[in-house]
Amino acid sequence: MRFILTRQNLGQWAADYIVKRINGFSPTSTKKFVLGLPTGGTVVDMYASLCAASREGRVSFKQVVTFNMDEYVGLAKTHPESYYSYMHRHLFDHVDIDPKNVHILNGNAANLDGECQAYESAIAHSGGIELFLGGVGRNGHLAFNEPGTPFTSRTHRVALTQSTIEANARFFENDLSKVPTEALTVGIGTVTDAKEVLILVKGEKKAQAMRRLLEEPPTQDCPITALRNHPNAAVLVDEGACQDLSAATKEKLRELQSKNPQQDTWTLEI
């Protein structure tokens, strides 16, 4: 696993990487690039940068297939805080993607378990996800997979914990009664089946999760630690997310920085 510390804007760094990966893949109508996508505040800049790259002709989404991580249960697609609305507002309405290549879980499906199974089938039919982007919760949750979720889990229905509901209340006028209490989410196994995983982590509130990822054995009590078992995973962090790391790990990062002071990004192999 790669632990990447950058002083760049995380979203810009990630967008540049996605553009590089899509262009290097050279997707075609018979060999599409399959991209797993998150929502949330951390990746708003990433989507803005991808939209700019599309406008400037630096990347095309015509041969890109996307699968989003999750969606609320019972929230109308047209609700401004649905992830369907989020994705169209921040990305899909501004790039040249084919609507039939966009996949977002339907939290209003008549059969929610069937919806989850169909989502897994669609991923498999696409040939699997090439690159899965994501974020992490304060307690280490990955997508809506809370502590205790098996690393082998697949797309499923989940009851949101109180801490997640409280964290998401800022998107619902800070009114807990307006926050959905259930969601559909890809499983941890769904994410780690991707050929490559890149997680963006910003700020001091995520620092404890980063400490557990780097310095403790993988455990279901901290879902993000599943990445330690992945052959091609990376975590992109800012300095705030590093504050709870041990003195030894911080020293390793300082050594990297001192050897390459002209850089603004440093990679620690874990």
Q: Could you please describe the fold and organization of this structure?
A:
With 270 residues, the chain is α/β, with parallel strands linked by helices. It has one domain: Rossmann fold (3-Layer(aba) Sandwich). It contains eight helices and eleven strands. The chain has helices at residues 10-25, 44-55, 83-90, 112-125, 162-168, 188-192, 207-215, 247-259, and strands spanning 2-6, 33-37, 64-68, 70-72, 102-103, 131-134, 156-159, 182-185, 196-201, 233-237, 265-269. The strands form two sheets. Strands 5-3-2-6-9-10-1-11 form an eight-stranded mixed beta sheet, with helices on both faces. It has a three-stranded antiparallel beta sheet with strand order 4-8-7, covered by helices on one side. Helix 2 links the parallel strand 2 and strand 3. Helix 1 (10-25) crosses helix 2.
